[in-house]
TrEMBL record:
<keyword id="KW-0012">Acyltransferase</keyword>
<dbReference type="GO" id="GO:0016787">
    <property type="term" value="F:hydrolase activity"/>
</dbReference>
<dbReference type="InterPro" id="IPR029058">
    <property type="entry name" value="AB_hydrolase_fold"/>
</dbReference>
<dbReference type="InterPro" id="IPR000073">
    <property type="entry name" value="AB_hydrolase_1"/>
</dbReference>
<protein>
    <submittedName>
        <fullName>Hydrolase or acyltransferase of alpha/beta superfamily protein</fullName>
    </submittedName>
</protein>
<feature type="domain" description="AB hydrolase-1">
    <location>
        <begin position="29"/>
        <end position="138"/>
    </location>
</feature>
<dbReference type="GO" id="GO:0016746">
    <property type="term" value="F:acyltransferase activity"/>
</dbReference>
<keyword id="KW-0808">Transferase</keyword>
<dbReference type="GO" id="GO:0016020">
    <property type="term" value="C:membrane"/>
</dbReference>
<keyword id="KW-0378">Hydrolase</keyword>
<dbReference type="Pfam" id="PF00561">
    <property type="entry name" value="Abhydrolase_1"/>
</dbReference>
<dbReference type="InterPro" id="IPR050266">
    <property type="entry name" value="AB_hydrolase_sf"/>
</dbReference>
Length: 286
């Protein structure tokens, strides 16, 4: 099945599942994009074309999202990192530039810490930060799981659930991208996959926080959104940005960039900022 997001393909996994991916462009190093919680390849629709002018770029759907097979295993951080590793093995390159948005940040950081020889650079796009208490608070987790369960239930009954933030983001896409994204992102399976990712989030983050795994000595950019469009985000935003700064300031090749016109959704609100930082690493030392 074709995709307006790029040339489609499937990576076979050892347990028989398949991960769907799309690619654009030619060249090396290959850039691989890791999406946020409950998000598929479509998150990168405004970023991929500009990257493809300089090198090959690949985005994929994690298990249960987009066109990838669901995973009967618990969807914890380690499982997601394992799947990413199989995808990279399938793509067949020696080293990659990895970019991850939100939850994608801890996923690619975990992979880089375990496989430093495979990573040429990292771009962390408003990444989720495991050192923030909000990911572990029982009241926040209960409320979020409840909302996600309700949305999954409504979708299963045939109600098209389109949250306001999703409507805003999709309005930024060209019509063909918007249509493909909307058709997939409102399916019951998407909400179930999102629920599965969030259900295991706190335990995976706790292990990551305690591991203190070191990143490889490669360029690492953290991009932080500067805006707080909601009351909830305004309470979290200062601590999140501070976490991003701490991470890169402790790294010998770290760099912090503020996306002045974005909140959390930097890949859609300011795709040019993301593209510029990825291509800076692709180009290598000046």
């Amino acid at each position: 099945m074709s995709s307006v997001f790029g040339e489609p393909g499937y990576a076979p996994l050892p347990d028989g599942r398949r991960l769907h991916h799309v690619s654009q462009g030619e060249g090396r190093p290959v850039v691989v994009l890791e999406s946020g919680l409950g998000a598929s390849r479509v998150e990168w629709g405004l970023v991929m074309p500009a990257l493809a002018e300089r090198t090959r770029v690949v985005a994929y759907d994690r298990a249960g999202l987009g066109r990838s097979d669901r995973d009967p295993h618990r969807r914890d951080l380690e499982r997601m990192v394992e799947d990413l590793g199989h995808l990279l093995d399938h793509l067949g390159e020696d080293r990659y530039v990895l970019a991850g948005h939100s939850l994608g940040g801890p996923i690619i950081r975990s992979y880089a810490a375990a496989h430093p020889e495979r990573v040429a650079g990292l771009v962390l796009v408003d990444q989720a930060a495991e050192d923030l208490d909000i990911y572990y608070r029982k009241d926040v987790r209960a409320m979020t799981l409840g909302v996600q369960s309700v949305m999954a239930g409504l979708a299963a009954l045939g109600v098209r659930v389109v949250p306001a933030e999703l409507r805003r983001i999709l309005a930024l896409f060209p019509p063909d991208m918007r249509a493909e994204a909307l058709a997939e992102m409102t399916r019951p399976s998407e909400f179930r996959a999102t629920l599965a990712e969030y259900a295991a989030l706190a335990e995976g983050f706790a292990r990551l926080r305690s591991s203190q795994a070191a990143l490889p000595p490669v360029p690492v950019t953290a991009i932080s959104g500067a805006l707080s469009p909601s009351k909830v985000e305004s309470r979290v935003r200062p601590d999140l940005v501070a976490s991003h700064r701490r991470l890169v300031e402790a790294h010998p090749h770290g760099r912090h960039v503020l996306a002045e016109r974005s909140g959390h959704m930097v890949p859609q609100d300011e795709p040019g900022v993301v593209v510029a930082e990825i291509l800076r690493i692709v180009a290598g030392p000046v």
